[in-house]
Specification:
With 606 residues, the chain is of the alpha/beta class. 43% of the residues lie in helices and 10% in strands.
C-alpha cells in the first residue's frame, strides 16, 4: 500500500512538472519574441543575439528546445540594409495572401497571373486569418527572399524584408495543373524593366536533363540569358541531389547566378556550418555550379497550412513562434541570395546586375567546412563594402549569340569558323535550316573535329535539320570519351524521327554511365520515348540507386517506369510530405518501392 501511494505521488509530481515545463517553454517563446522586438525596433532588422541567448539557460533536467536563428541573424546582415526601395521578382507555382509576403506600410507586393491577355499585376493584401494552404512552396521562396516576419513580430524575417515583390504564378492559363515557365519568363522580359524589377528567381526542374548541352538549345535558358543581357540579375538554386551537376535546369546557364547551400547548425553560428547535399559539377560551357552559397537547411520560414506544420517531425524539438517551422532545400538558398542582392542595391542603386553579381561572389565567405562546393557563403556586409566593381566591358553570351545569328551565313563561315572552339560552336548552333551546302560541309567537318565541344554542338544541331547521321557514328558517339559528346548523342536520338529502338541497347548502357548527368539523361530519354523496351533495365537499377543514395537517379527511374508501363506503386508507409526523414527509413522505403517493381517485372515477363 505504501509503495502504491509513492507511485501515485510520483505520478502527480510528474504531471505537475510536465505542465510547468510546457508553460515555461511558452514563456521562453514569448520572452524571446519580446527580446527580439525590443532589440530590433519590432518590425525588421537583425535581432540582438545576446538578448535572445540570455534567456536560454538550463534548469536541472528540463528539456530545452532549440532556438534556431533567423536568416538575417545567421548571416549577420546589417540592420539598415533591408532591400528598401528595390524590386525583385519570384517565379513559382502559386502564392497565398500570407502576411509575411503581402503588402504593408514599408513595401508593395504584386501577384501576376498569366492569361491569354496581358495580365495586370494585382496588389496582394494580407489575409491575417488564414489558413494559407495553397502555394506553400511559393510562400517559402518569397519569405526567404523578402518575408517581413509579420506573424513572428519581425523575428523571422527574410533577408530583405522591405523589398518590393512581384510574385509570378507560372500556371498555364488553360490548365491549372501545367506549368507555364516560358510564358512567365517572357512576362518578365516584356514588363520587367518598366516595373523596375532588378533581379528574379527562376528555379524549375524540366526535362530533358541538360547541364552538358549548350544553353541555346532550350528556350527557357535562352530567355534567362536574354534577361541577363537586359540588365536583370537571374538567380537559381542548384537542386538538392548530389548525383547531378544541376537539378534546376536554369542553374547551368552561363549568366545565371547558381546558388548552393550550407546547413545552419543548432548553435546558430556560421563558423560551424557544413555544406548542404546539393548539386555540383561543371557545365557544357565550363561553368562551375554552384557559384555562391546560402542557408539551405534548418531555414525557419512561415508555414501556410497549420495541419502540415503540426505534422512536422521537428515541431516537438524546436522553440519557434506559432506558424513557423524549419525547411530545407536550395529552393530557399536561391531566394536568400536574391534578397541579398536587393540589400546591395539599396546601398548601391547605381550598380548593374553584373556588378552586384560580382560583388556577391567575390564578397562571399570561404571555409574548409564547405570547400567541397568550391564556393563561399553570401555576405551582404562584405559585398556592400567593396569598391565599385570595374568589370571588363565584354559582350554577354546572349549578345554574342544574337550578333552571330545576324551575320550573313557566308560571312559567318569565312570570318568566324575555326577562330576558336567557342566561336565555332556558335557558328554551328547558328546554322540556318534547311542546311545550305556550306552548312552541311561544316557539320561534316565538325563530326571529325578533335574538339569534343564542336562534336557535341554538331550532334545537337543535326537534331534540328534534315541531316542523315550515320547510325554507326551515332553509336560510337554514345561511347565517346567525353561526357558532353555522349550527352549530345542522347539528345540527338531523343529528337530525331529515327526509330529509337535501334539504339535501345546502347542507350541502356548509358543508364550506368560514369558521368551522372549522362546517365540521368539516358534514363529520362527512356521514359520520354514511352518504349517498353527499357522497362527491364530501368527496374534492374532501382535497388542499386537506392543503396547508393543516388536520389535523383532513383526517382528518374521511377518516373520513366511509370511512363513506359503505365504502372505506379507506393511504399507502405508512404514517404513523408514535409520535414527531413531519417536516412535509413527513407532508404528502406526506396528499397520497398524497388521490391514492388521487381515483383511486377517478374509477373510481367512471365
Amino acid at each position: 500500500m505504501q509503495h502504491l501511494q509513492q507511485q501515485r505521488t510520483t505520478a502527480v509530481l510528474e504531471t505537475v512538472f510536465a505542465a510547468i515545463t510546457i508553460y515555461f517553454h511558452k514563456f521562453i517563446r514569448s520572452a524571446r519574441s519580446a527580446a527580439f522586438a525590443y532589440s530590433s525596433g519590432y518590425a525588421i532588422g537583425t535581432p540582438c543575439k545576446n538578448a535572445i541567448r540570455m534567456i536560454s539557460f538550463h534548469w536541472g533536467v528540463l528539456p530545452m528546445l532549440t532556438a534556431w536563428p533567423s536568416i538575417r541573424e545567421f548571416l549577420d546582415v546589417p540592420s539598415d540594409l533591408t532591400g528598401r526601395g528595390v524590386t525583385i521578382a519570384i517565379i513559382d507555382a502559386n502564392f497565398p495572401n500570407h502576411p509575411d509576403i503581402s503588402s504593408d506600410e514599408t513595401r508593395h507586393t504584386y501577384r501576376v497571373r498569366l492569361s491569354p491577355e496581358v495580365t495586370e499585376p494585382e496588389r496582394i493584401v494580407a489575409d491575417h486569418a488564414g489558413p494559407w494552404k495553397r502555394g506553400v512552396h511559393g510562400l517559402w521562396a518569397a519569405a526567404a527572399a523578402a518575408g517581413t516576419g509579420c506573424l513572428s513580430h519581425g523575428q523571422y524575417a527574410g533577408i530583405a524584408p522591405q523589398a518590393n515583390l512581384y510574385l509570378i504564378s507560372a500556371y498555364a492559363p488553360d490548365n491549372p495543373n501545367q506549368f507555364a515557365l516560358e510564358e512567365a519568363i517572357q512576362w518578365v522580359r516584356d514588363h520587367g524593366l518598366e516595373l523596375g524589377i532588378r533581379g528574379i528567381l527562376v528555379s524549375f526542374n524540366t526535362r530533358p536533363h541538360s547541364p552538358l548541352l549548350p544553353w541555346q538549345l532550350d528556350a527557357n535558358k535562352a530567355l534567362c540569358e536574354q534577361l541577363a543581357d537586359m540588365g536583370i540579375l537571374v538567380v537559381c538554386g542548384t537542386g538538392n541531389a548530389t548525383d547531378a551537376t544541376a537539378v534546376s535546369v536554369q542553374a547551368p546557364v552561363p549568366s545565371v547566378l547558381s546558388v548552393g547551400g550550407i546547413v545552419i547548425p543548432a548553435n546558430g553560428t556560421l563558423e560551424d556550418a557544413l555544406s548542404y547535399h546539393g548539386s555540383r559539377g561543371t557545365t557544357f560551357e565550363g561553368k562551375w555550379v554552384p557559384e555562391i552559397l546560402a542557408p539551405a537547411e534548418n531555414v525557419v520560414l512561415p508555414w501556410g497550412d497549420p495541419q502540415m506544420l503540426s505534422e512536422h517531425p521537428n515541431s516537438a524539438v524546436d522553440d519557434l513562434p506559432e506558424g513557423y517551422g524549419r525547411i530545407d532545400g536550395t529552393s530557399f538558398s536561391g531566394p536568400i541570395v536574391l534578397g541579398a542582392a536587393a540589400c546591395i542595391w539599396q546601398a548601391h542603386p547605381e550598380w548593374t546586375n553584373e556588378q552586384v553579381k560580382w560583388a556577391l561572389v567575390n564578397g562571399s565567405l570561404k571555409s574548409e567546412r564547405w570547400a567541397d562546393l568550391r564556393a563561399g557563403v553570401v555576405s551582404v556586409q562584405t559585398s556592400v563594402s567593396m569598391c565599385d566593381p570595374e568589370l571588363e566591358m565584354s559582350p554577354s553570351p546572349f549578345s554574342r549569340w544574337r550578333a552571330m545569328c545576324s551575320i550573313p551565313e557566308e560571312e559567318r563561315f569565312q570570318a568566324k569558323w575555326g577562330v576558336d572552339d567557342a566561336t565555332s560552336v556558335e557558328v554551328i548552333l547558328s546554322l540556318d535550316t534547311p542546311f545550305s551546302p556550306n552548312g552541311l560541309q561544316i557539320l561534316s567537318d565538325s563530326f571529325a573535329n578533335m574538339s569534343p565541344t564542336i562534336r557535341s554542338a554538331a550532334l545537337c544541331k543535326t537534331m534540328a535539320g534534315e541531316y542523315d547521321l550515320d547510325a554507326t557514328y551515332l553509336s560510337f558517339a554514345l561511347q565517346d570519351a567525353d561526357a558532353r559528346v555522349r550527352s549530345a548523342a542522347l539528345y540527338h536520338i531523343l529528337h530525331r524521327p529515327t526509330p529509337r529502338g535501334n539504339y535501345s541497347d546502347v542507350v541502356i548502357d548509358r543508364f550506368v554511365d560514369e558521368d551522372p548527368d549522362v546517365s540521368l539523361l539516358a534514363i529520362q530519354l527512356a521514359g520520354m520515348t514511352k518504349s517498353p523496351l527499357f522497362a527491364s533495365a530501368l527496374v534492374a537499377g532501382l535497388r542499386d540507386e537506392a543503396l547508393a543514395d543516388r536520389d535523383i537517379h532513383f526517382w528518374g527511374r521511377i518516373i520513366a517506369l511509370r511512363e513506359v508501363t503505365n504502372q505506379s506503386f507506393t511504399p507502405n508507409p508512404p514517404f513523408q510530405a514535409v520535414g527531413s526523414e531519417d536516412g535509413d527509413a527513407y532508404r528502406q522505403k526506396c528499397l520497398n518501392l524497388s521490391e514492388q517493381w521487381e515483383e511486377w517485372l517478374a509477373s510481367w515477363v512471365h
